[in-house]
Structures are given as C-alpha cells and as structure tokens.
Amino acid sequence: MAVMKMKFPFQKRVKLAQGLWLLSWCATVAGATTFTLGCLLKTELHRRAEVMDNTDIHIVPNTLMIVGLASLGINYFASKICQDALDAGRFPRWKNFLKPYFAISCFFTVLMLLTVIMSYAMTGSLESSLKVGLRNGIRFYKDTDTPGRCFQKQNIDRLQMEFQCCGNNDFRDWFEVQWISNRYLDFSSKEVKDRIKSNVDGRFLVDGVPFSCCNPSSPRPCIQYQLTNNSAHYNYDYQTEELNIYLRGCREALVNYYMGLMNTIGAGVLSVFLLQVHTVLTAIHLRFLQTAMEAVAGNENTEIETEGYLLEKGVKETIMEYLDPVLKFLLLKNQVQEGETAPVTA
Amino acid sequence: MAVLKVTFTKTKRDKLAQVLWILNWISVVTGAILFSLGIFLKVEINKRGELMAGRDIQYVPNMLIAVGLIACAINFLGGKICYDCVDSTKFLRWKLIMLPYIVCTFFFTFCVLVGALMCYGMHWELEESLDMGLTQAMRFYKDTDTPGRCFLKHTVDMLQIEFQCCGNNGYKDWFQIQWISNRYLDMSKKEVVDRLRSNVEGKYLTDGVPYSCCNINSPRPCIQQQITNNSAHFNYEHQTEELNLWMKGCRQALLESFTHIMRSIGFTVLITWLFELSVLTGVRYLQTSLENVLRQGDPNSDSCGWLLENSLMETARTNMSIIKSLGKSNQINTEYHPTNCRFFYENVSK
C-alpha cells in the first residue's frame, strides 16, 4: 500500500524538475552565504581573543561553517539530479543516491536550526569567559615589561576607547587593581610610601582610571585621578557626574555587541533554514517524480501520464528499511541470524 | 596626406565596430566609477568639514561627479552608434551626428584630463585650509557651552584619537592656547590667579595637553599635565620621551590621508582618460572608413580609415577658413573634395 499517490502528466514533471533545479541553486547560494556568515563571526570573535578566557563560544561559528559547506555540496548535488531528472536514460544512475541525499539533507537542516538555538544558549558561557578574560587584562595592565603580557595595556586601552566602556563591571574595578607599575612610582616620596603601607598586600591603589576611560563627549577636560574626591576638582560632584568617564562596563558592552552580531547572523541563518526546508519538501516532490520515472523506465513512450507516490510501503516499514543498515552498522542486530538459517536448508 | 592611414576590409570593419561596442560599454562602467569616486571624495571632505576653513575645495569632487555622468552619457551614445555601424544601412542614420560626436568627445577628454590634474593640484589648497581650520578648532576647544561650537571638543578629541596626532604642528600648540574653560577654573585659588595674571591677555595657559593626545603604545600611564617639568614625574625626561604622547601634528596626518586618497583617485582618472582616448581613436577610424565605403558605393569593399584627412597644418587652416566663412553664406568651397585610396595611389605613382 503506497502513501499519498498522485497522477503526473508530462508537463507537471517538467515544471517540477525545473522548479526544483532553481530552488537548489538558490539554496546553494544560501549555503555559501551561511559559510561566509560563519567566517565573519569567527573573525570577530578572534579579534577580541585576548579578553576571552576560553574558546567555547567558537563552536557556533565552526558549526555554521560546516553546515554552510555541507548545504553547498548537498544542494549542488540536488541541482545535478534535477538536471537529469527529465532524461529517462540519465536518471537511473542517481537512483541509489536519493535515499542518502534525503537523510543527509534532513540532518544538516536540523543542525542549522540547532546552531541558532546554540548561539542564544551560549550567552552565559560567553559572559563568564569575558569576565575572567577582562579581569586578567585589567590585572596585567601594568605589566608592560613582562613578555607575554606587554600588549595587555594596549589591548585594554583600545578596547575601552572602541567600545566606550571602562573596567569589567564598571570603572570602580580600576580602584581595586594596581594599574600603575612600580617602575614609575617614586618610592622616596612620602605619599607613595604611605599609600603602599596602608594597603594590606602592599599595592599602590588609587581612585583613578586610565585615560582610555575618558569620555570625549564630556564638556570639561577629563578628570581621571581622585575621582571620588569632590574637593580636589572645582565644580565637581562625582555622584552626579555622568559624562566625565564611560560608566558602562566592558563586559556588558562586549556581550551586547556579540549578541547583536549573533542575532543578525541568526536571522540570516533562519531564513536560509526556511529555504532549505522548502528545498527538502520540494525534494519530497522529487521523490514523487522518481517513482513516476520508475514507472516510465520500462515504457518506450516517455511522455505518458504516470503515477507517483511518496512511500512505496507504509510509514513503519519504510522507517525500518532506513534504520536497518544503520543498526547493522552499529552491530546492534545479530548478523549471524541469516547465516544460521542457511545451513538448515542446505 | 592623411594622418595615420589604415586599410580596413569588411570583416575588419565589422570586428572593429563590435569591439568598440564592447569598449564603449566598459567606458560607461568606468564613467560610473568616476561618478562614485567623486561622491566618495565629497563625503570624505564633508566628514572633516568642521576642520577645514577658508578655501572651498568642493570643486574637485563636483568636477569628478559631472565628468563621470557625462562620460556615462557619451559612451552610452557611442555604444549605440557602434552597434549600428556593423550594418551600413543603419550607419546612414548616424552619419551626420558622428563627426560632431567625435569632436565633442575629444573636448570632453580634455575635461577628464583637467579633472585628473586637479586631483593632484589640490594639495596646496588643502594644506592651507586644514591649517586655518585646525587652528580655529583648537581655539574653540573649550567653548562647549557656545552654540555652534559645542561639538568642536568632541571633534578634535576623536580626530586626535583616530589619526594618532596631537595639535596642529605638534603637541606644543596646546601650550599656546587656553583649552580649559574658565567655568572649571577655581578663581579663589592662588595658583590659578597667579597664572592668569602672568599672562598678557589673561589666558590660563598650562604645559598640559588634552587626554586625546595620549599614546596608546606608551608603557607607562599617560602624562598629560606638566609635560615640560621633568621633576614633576618620576623617571621622566620630556626631551627623550617619545612614546608618551602622539608626536605627529594633525595637519600633517590629515594631509597625508587626503593626499593618499587624491593620488589613488587621480591615477584612476588618468587611466580612464587614456581609455577614453583610445576608444575615441577607434570610433574615428570607424567613422572615416564607413564614410569612404559609402563614397565608393560597394559595401563589401576595402576602405581606408584615418585620423585626419589632410595633415595637421592643412586641417587647421581649412577649419579656420570654415569658421571665417560661417558668416558669409555666398562662398562655396570647391577645393575640399573627397578622396579615395585609388586616387591617392594614382597620384603617388605619377
């Protein structure tokens, strides 16, 4: 008993094959676009790799690139099938490839959707990675003479100026870290000695921030030292002052930036996903075409009307047909069973 | 004696027409490129509009935009003409227009050349304009409460950060102007009052610079106040310190950036000019060879094409006399009669 039988006049077969061919080419281009988007995201993540602690988030662009390449290949393959679909002589050589094509196509379509979901799910991981990375960056800001860390100052300064942010959570993070190296502290000066003595760990902590925290939109020249001391500056109240330095924390700024980027890319990938689903559904129509062509195969007159069906046997039997080779491969089914019966009959 | 005479067979003529058709369409594309380069330059100049004063240098991008549009139109027409030239019956339609078209295009190529030269010549005016603009911007840096000037601080800060420069010629320019507004000066403090009194014009001058002059690559936290005072900072000598602030002046930095853009655009325009000239030469040959075919009567025969029918001197003389006789309608010029290749060879052999 066949599932969903339909009648197919010749014209309809031609139109179906042409439509599918065009759709496959669109989906190929869409696959290339997905690959490009994946590359873009990876490049952006790589640019800020110094302030990220781990590379867990890179799984999102990596998967996107793989899915893009795979869908490029699959849809190119599908368009080749469509080209031969109307030629009864050339079509039979594709017969064996149709079942794996469906399976692989469905797999990668689902994977595409999973990638988009993953990008939202990994926000927490990205945030904690940035938290640790930024904390280290701020701690090693002063170590411009230590190999391996000498560019931290540059990176953090550039980051703060580009993303208009200051510190990890906010500018107060700089108050808890010694960001002025001992090389530039005059240890003969009384105030320096006092400050270092007053600190438990012997660190030189100030209520000041680096110049890269300064906000260019401020109407007054930047105040970066003695931020909490209102009397040190004329006409200054640090609680109400909002324009002097950037108030946003760099972690929040970076997370927002990357989430925005992934939202845009996610929207693009979702539309590619819809196109891919459309292509797979049309490929199911191709299945109709295939079965219709099989009916034509024996006949000399190729322009007759033929019937096509979705599944030759019922749904359950078809699923078992697909799963059998997979199970055999996984050695879950006993292959000896068939062999055992043979000697008995012999 | 014709200038640069070439013999054309029928197939050669057809091929020439087809090649010229394609080249004309490529020229349309280059015309569009010129147009977009003009727009790009206009946008770049407007972006730094607040820092340029005095001279108006908008004429350069405007010229490029106009030239680009005219090039598109002329080459579009040229493409149509060349497409029809393959068929000698269709050529009759364009016969009368072709010579004026060629003359117009010839003068137009001069405009393209002028445009290219303007790109290179803009350098001096730009430098003057930037000098005046930057001086003014630095003077009004502190006036963040004056309408019309309130964004100059932001503009100058972003400029110094982006182009990695400080001041007009160098960071010392900031020592000569008051860049800290009186609103943020505590007039009750003795040192502030002393400093104001010590200056002739009552300006508050310091040996400090705004934070945007700070160099990111410096290994130590930025020193922006008391720059010339070595004892104010530990382990600091201002004569040898190069990494603390940006050493380059903003005028030089902006000039370098614009010169780079102008040179690239100028080069592209020169290439376009050469291309247009070669297309024009091809069209001239096509026109003269097709006209000779018409005179000979047989569309499949060989014909000659040339740039000028007579030598340069004679053509100039003839054109001058035509221009002189424009007012006088009675004169009939009988000396100017058509020639063909056979006539030439017969005369030469005699």
TrEMBL record, chain A:
Q: Where are the transmembrane segments?
A: 59-79, 100-122
Q: Its membrane topology, per UniProt?
A: Multi-pass membrane protein
Q: Which PROSITE patterns match?
A: RDS_ROM1
What the entry lists under CDD domains is as follows: peripherin_like_LEL
Record carries keyword Transmembrane helix:
yes
Question: Which InterPro entries did the record assign?
Answer: Peripherin/rom-1, Peripherin/rom-1_CS, Peripherin_LEL, Tetraspanin/Peripherin, Tetraspanin_EC2_sf
Which UniProt key words apply to this protein? Membrane, Transmembrane, Transmembrane helix
Q: What is its subcellular localisation? A: Membrane
> Which segments of the protein form a coiled coil according to its record?
none
Q: One cellular component GO annotation, for this chain's record?
A: plasma membrane
Pfam families in the record, alphabetically? Tetraspanin
Which BP terms in the Gene Ontology apply to this protein? visual perception
The entry assigns this protein to a family as follows: Belongs to the PRPH2/ROM1 family.
Q: What is this protein called?
A: Retinal outer segment membrane protein 1a
From TrEMBL, chain B:
Q: Which SUPFAM superfamilies match?
A: Tetraspanin
Q: Name one GO biological process term.
A: visual perception
Task: Report the InterPro entries cross-referenced here.
Answer: Peripherin/rom-1, Peripherin_LEL, Tetraspanin/Peripherin, Tetraspanin_EC2_sf
- Entry's transmembrane regions: 20-39, 59-78, 99-123
The record ties this protein, via Pfam families, to: Tetraspanin
A GO-annotated cellular component: plasma membrane
Q: Which UniProt keywords apply?
A: Membrane, Transmembrane, Transmembrane helix
Q: Where in the cell is it found?
A: Membrane
Q: What is this protein called?
A: Peripherin 2-like a
The organism is Nothobranchius furzeri (Turquoise killifish)
